[in-house]
Write a structure and sequence with these properties.
With 345 residues, this protein is α+β, with helices and mostly antiparallel strands. The chain contains 12 helices and 24 strands. Belongs to the krueppel C2H2-type zinc-finger protein family.
């Protein structure tokens, strides 16, 4: 009787690119297509390509409306078992994956892996146009629309187009005027959950986002990102008319009215028009004669905060504006501009 032949467990198939091992040659072949970006299997309905046959079969259920796996809690249907398994965690609220750095818990391993890149500051995905790096592939894909200017998502109501689906969904709330999120403190309603969460920090005074340069705190990430451009002097928004750069999109929109001479904000008292809302608000104090800003030194009142700041320099004798020619100091920028004409003569 011949002894039983024991399988060689070391007889694995290794990828020559990343050295990852596979039990069978079939799995190795499928894996190599990731490196080659080869997708030989095409959907006959939408012409989408796939690297392996099993992915195509799962995808075909989208067109056939075949949903084999149903959630027993909410009756939502899924085309593959793994999607159902991932979904069930929503109901169980189980978060078995914990970050070793900050101890934050996650329901999925993939979410934990993405999160750990915050601590490692790893950004493996690079834009081929501007060489900017990103921690996630999805962030890079979104960013690429800046260069391509592609806007494939169109609003069915006003025909406005967007580069991202999430931006279109946010925009749609303008037409529906639906605001399902209500603040329990002031009863103000919000169309989007993220705006609601940001608003709640007004009441709690929570400012979880900190600038790493000057340590200033902000209530939301978007405010921090805008602030960081002060340090980096980044001005990604450029005027197509005069090529002037701006750090925020709203500043560019406001500036464009200089060229178009558009003044959409009108005073209800004297019908005077203004190019930006802040100028209208400042102007309204002329009619109301309201002066809410008071000097703590002499108790003089001012209608605008900027006027109070300029006035306070009289008491502090601060002169922050310096002439680059003769180094003379001035309390106000307008005085410096007037003075510069002396040197230009």
């Amino acid at each position: 009787m011949q002894p039983m032949k024991v399988p060689n467990i070391n007889n694995t198939h290794e990828c020559s690119v990343c050295l990852k091992n596979f039990v069978t040659k079939k799995y190795l072949v499928q894996h190599v297509r990731l490196h080659l970006q080869e997708k030989p299997y095409q959907c006959s309905e939408c012409l989408k390509d796939f690297s392996c046959k099993s992915s195509l079969i799962r995808h075909m259920r989208v067109h056939s409306s075949e949903n084999l796996y149903q959630c027993s809690e909410c009756l939502k249907n899924f085309t593959c078992k793994s999607s159902l398994t991932s979904h069930m965690i929503v109901h169980s609220q189980e978060k078995p994956y914990q970050c070793s750095e900050c101890l934050k818990n996650f329901s999925r391993k993939s979410h934990l892996i993405r999160h750990t890149k915050i601590h490692s500051q790893e950004k493996p995905y690079q834009c081929s146009e501007c060489l900017k790096n990103f921690s996630r592939k999805s962030f890079l894909i979104r960013h690429m629309t800046v260069h391509s200017q592609e806007k494939p998502y169109q609003c069915s109501e006003c025909i406005k187009s967007f580069s991202q689906k999430s931006t279109l969904m946010q925009h749609m709330t303008i037409h529906s005027q639906e605001k399902p999120y209500q603040c329990s403190e002031c009863l103000k309603n919000f169309a989007l959950k993220k705006y609601f969460i940001s608003h709640m920090r007004v009441h709690s005074l929570e400012k979880p986002c900190q600038c790493s340069v000057c340590l200033k705190d902000f209530s939301c990430k978007s405010s921090l990102m805008k602030h960081i451009r002060i340090h980096s002097q980044e001005k990604p928004y450029q005027c197509s008319e005069c090529l002037k750069g701006f750090s925020q999109k709203s500043y560019l929109s406001q500036h464009m009215r200089v060229h178009s001479q558009e003044k959409p904000f009108q005073c209800s008292e004297c019908l005077k028009d203004f190019s930006c809302k802040s100028h209208l608000i400042q102007h309204m104090t002329v009619h109301s004669q309201e002066k809410p800003y008071q000097c703590s030194e002499c108790l003089k009142n001012f209608s605008l905060k900027g006027n109070l700041i300029r006035h306070l320099r009289i008491h502090s004798q601060e002169k922050p504006f310096k002439c680059s020619e003769c180094l003379k100091d001035f309390a106000q920028k307008s005085h410096l501009i007037q003075h510069m004409s002396v040197h230009s003569v």
